[in-house]
Amino acid sequence: xxxxxxxxxxxxxxxxxxxxxxxxxxxxxxxxxxxxxxxxxxxxxxxxxxxxxxxxxxxxxxxxxxxxxxxxxxxxxxxxxxxxxxxxxxxxxxxxxxxxxxxxxxxxxxxxxxxxxxxxxxxxxxxxxxxxxxxxxxxxxxxxxxxxxxxxxxxxxxxxxxxxxxxxxxxxxxxxxxxxxxxxxxxxxxxxxxxxxxxxxxxxxxxxxxxxxxxxxxxxxxxxxxxxxxxxxxxxxxxxxxxxxxxxxxxxxxxxxxxxxxxxxxxxxxxxxxxxxxxxxxxxx
Length: 285
Known about the structure:
Structural class: mainly alpha
Distance between the termini: 151 Å
CATH architecture of the domain at 203-285: Alpha Horseshoe
CATH topology of the domain at 203-285: Serine Threonine Protein Phosphatase 5, Tetratricopeptide repeat
Shape: rod-shaped
Strand content: under 5%
Radius of gyration: 57 Å
Oligomer: single chain
């Protein structure tokens, strides 16, 4: 009986062990299958990553090539523009250089002509002075001319025409030799007092004094023009120059009076426009 029980127990244990071993073997196979599946998935993932890396590298390489090509093209265009700009600038510089050389030649030529003209004017002035003094010395105030003819006056006394004397004086004025110009115009007025240009000479004397900053003399010269030639159209300039002289002397009330005279009596003149602006300056002060 006891032997039978032992056998039964051994049989039961053998069956249980066999069942356990079978179950363990099945679980092992399942795990192996899972591992192989994971290995396959890992391999597929590696292949996908390698493919993506290759695609990415190709994309980056293509993008770099495109950018490099665009940069090279832009650089070439910029270089072409720069070269063109330099070429254009060189053309402009060369043209300016040519113009400057031509201008210098003209200036040099004009300088020569001005120098020649100045020599001619100086010679003419010297002749006029000599003739003027010679004619005065040759005539005795009590006895008159030696040959009994009347003493020469006007153009014959100077040995030159009114136009020649005017041009000589105005050349001095235009060249900035205002003292000589004043002397020349005063000689013109005293020699040809009835000339139509006598008032122009007197107003130009006023201008010469203003330009040489002799403002007191300018006021007197302008007053002489206003007093001696009351109907002349040049009075607008005389009053305006008188106002400038007073303003430079800080005599603003007198300057304002002169400018207002220009505006009232000669409203359409160029001097009236200038005088209106001067009035603003005098009023501000």
